[in-house]
Amino acid sequence: MQLVLLSIETGRSLLVSGTTATHRETLIGGLIHITNALLIDKIEGAIQSLGGRIEDVVRTRIYIADPEIWEPVTRAHGQRFRHIRPTNTLVRAGLIGEGYLVEIEAEALALETPD
After folding, report:
1. Which of 30, 74, 95, 111 sits between 20 and 30 A of 39, alpha carbons compared?
2. Which domain, by its residues, includes 58?
């Protein structure tokens, strides 16, 4: 199954769909803080491709398959977004396939227009 990262621009809003720890068709497993770093890097790349910056993120939603991992997931999120401080919701949910532990979506508001 190939998973596609969808990012769209609607006016000044940049929306990044649920992002998982995959590279092409390969699930990237491992430590939660490393997985989260990969997810946020993918989100940042998607936002940049639309002319935004990671600092433009105003909301994130994190979906976790296992409630036992909430603390390392939120800690890793907080480390990356501590100066940006987007609103965030953490939800326990069934994810798209076996082995997927975390999925993150993001919304950014690009206040400056790209050159």
Report:
1. 111
2. 7-109
The CATH code of the domain that includes 62 is 3.30.1330.40
Phi, psi of 96 (to 5 degrees): -70, -15
- What element of type H or E holds 101? none
In a domain, 115, yes or no: no
Enclosing H/E stretch for 44: helix 32-49
Per-residue confidence in pLDDT tens, the chain, 115 aa: 444 455 555 568 889 998 888 877 787 877 787 888 889 999 999 999 988 999 999 999 999 999 999 999 999 999 999 999 999 999 999 877 788 889 999 999 987 655 5
Q: Would you call 19 helix, strand, or coil by DSSP?
A: strand
Place of tokens 């939660």: 32
- Residue 90 tokens read as 């953490």
CA gap 59, 13 in Å, rounded: 11
Residue at 13 is within a domain = yes
The total number of structural domains in the chain stands at: 1
The answer to the question of residue 79 being in a domain is yes
